[in-house]
Amino acid sequence: MFDRIDEMSVNAIRALSIDMIENAKSGHPGLPLDAAPMGYVLWAKQMKFNPKDTHWINRDRFILSAGHGSALLYSLLHLVGSKVSIEDLKRFKTYSSNTPGHPEYGVTEGVDASTGPLGQGFGMALGMAMAEKHMAARYNKPDFPIIDHYTFVLSGDGDLMEGISHEAASLAGHQKLNKLIVLYDSNDVSLDGPTSNAVSDDTRKRFEAYGWNYEFVKDGNGLEEIHHAITRAKGQSEKPTIIEIKTIIGYGAPNEGTNLVHGNILGKEGALSAKKKYGWEHPEFTIPQEVYNRFKETAEKGMKAEEDWIQLFKAYKEKYPELADEFETAIHGELPKDWDRDLPVYQAGDAEAGRMTSYKMIQQLSKNIPYFWGGSADLFSSNRTNVKDEEIFQPETPEGRNIWFGVREFAEAAAVNGIALHGGSRVYASTFLVFSDYMRNAIRLSALQKLPVTYVFTHDSIALGPDGPTHQPIEHLTSFRAMPGVVLFRPCDPNEAIASWKLAIQSKDHPALLALSRQDLPVLPGTGELAGEGVARGAYVLSKQQGDKPEGILIASGSEVPLVIEAQKILANSNIDVSVVSMPSMELFDQQSDEYKDSVLPHDVTKRVSAEMGSTLCWGRYVGLDGASIGIDRFGASANADELIRLNGFTVENVVETFKSLKMKKQLV
Amino acid sequence: MFDRIDEMSVNAIRALSIDMIENAKSGHPGLPLDAAPMGYVLWAKQMKFNPKDTHWINRDRFILSAGHGSALLYSLLHLVGSKVSIEDLKRFKTYSSNTPGHPEYGVTEGVDASTGPLGQGFGMALGMAMAEKHMAARYNKPDFPIIDHYTFVLSGDGDLMEGISHEAASLAGHQKLNKLIVLYDSNDVSLDGPTSNAVSDDTRKRFEAYGWNYEFVKDGNGLEEIHHAITRAKGQSEKPTIIEIKTIIGYGAPNEGTNLVHGNILGKEGALSAKKKYGWEHPEFTIPQEVYNRFKETAEKGMKAEEDWIQLFKAYKEKYPELADEFETAIHGELPKDWDRDLPVYQAGDAEAGRMTSYKMIQQLSKNIPYFWGGSADLFSSNRTNVKDEEIFQPETPEGRNIWFGVREFAEAAAVNGIALHGGSRVYASTFLVFSDYMRNAIRLSALQKLPVTYVFTHDSIALGPDGPTHQPIEHLTSFRAMPGVVLFRPCDPNEAIASWKLAIQSKDHPALLALSRQDLPVLPGTGELAGEGVARGAYVLSKQQGDKPEGILIASGSEVPLVIEAQKILANSNIDVSVVSMPSMELFDQQSDEYKDSVLPHDVTKRVSAEMGSTLCWGRYVGLDGASIGIDRFGASANADELIRLNGFTVENVVETFKSLKMKKQLV
Question: Where would I find the Transketolase-like pyrimidine-binding domain in this sequence (chains A, B) (predicted)?
Answer without folding.
Answer: 352-523
